[in-house]
Design brief:
The chain contains 9 helices and 11 strands. By secondary structure, the protein is α+β, with helices and mostly antiparallel strands. Strands 6, 7, 8, 9, 10 and 11 form a 6-stranded antiparallel sheet that branches. The longest helix has 20 residues. The chain is globular, with a radius of gyration of 22 Å.
Amino acid sequence: MGSAQSDEKLVFEDGPVRVEPYIMLKDKSSDEVIERTFHAIEEYLVNAEVDEIDRGMTQIMFERIASYRKGDQESKTDEKLHLILDDAVFLIDKYVKGTYQNNLVFAKDVGDLLQEMKSVLENSALIKWRMAINLNLQSIFEYSSKQETDNDLTAKLRIHSELDEEPIKVEFCRPSFFAKSVLYQLWYNSGRRKYILELENSYHLLDATNRPIYTVSDKDFVLSTDTVKDYVDFFFRAVIGKNGGFLIFTQEMEIPYKRDIDIDENIHKNILEHIQPIEIIESSEEQIAMVANIFFRDALFKSNIVVNKDGTCSLNNEELVLENLPIDTKGFV
């Protein structure tokens, strides 16, 4: 790599882009340093061969960078910066790393930039909020206990759990909508649970975003009318936005009433009159469309859900059915 005579210089050589110097975002969050970071992100990713499943996220990241550059000082918030860095870390790790001969060369060329972005995110409100989410996928699968002698697996899962704590129990299941993947459920003394998807020795922590699920589903999803309802239930329990999660009403599910309060019988009857289990309305080799009732915050909605053959999900034709309901979905998602 060339000599670092200038702190401003970006050095490009043959092969994958190489960036210098070490970009001190954490200690020097100035416009100058942020701009150099954006420039490095763009150089690494603008021509990266991103899979179709991640192109939407990549485009949104570039749009956020453009918007951040155009904004005034008050609009350049930490929250907006962290959203950009969060996507950039994921995309660089997924798509740039594989273009290098080995991990050592990747670490030498990209490691400082990647580590600096991760260090900024580590103490961000975004990551703290995400880590605090306690997903509940216990009731929708039948789990088996891991063999107690499989210490190597436990060590791998602990590394990917992002918790410096030994799980007291590890269970696993094989979701019917994946061909090969295994879902691990890790229990902790604190009462917390962590979930990790494993596909061919690649481990993906469920972090309340759709990224780990889509990374696996892009390679392993099985689109079938027999299992798509289970997938939708799993997906919307595992993906939670800043305003909360969606809870799909299934035939086996109880209405998620608030605990420790008496529910008026008329309210209960009114909800029952307006809900129905998820129903498939259209099916092809490319996608399956359903109509479902969805609990969100204190309201009940009706919406179409489309699941594509790569596992991506979308909502459309949302309709508010009831609001100001005595429900609480937090214990369910």
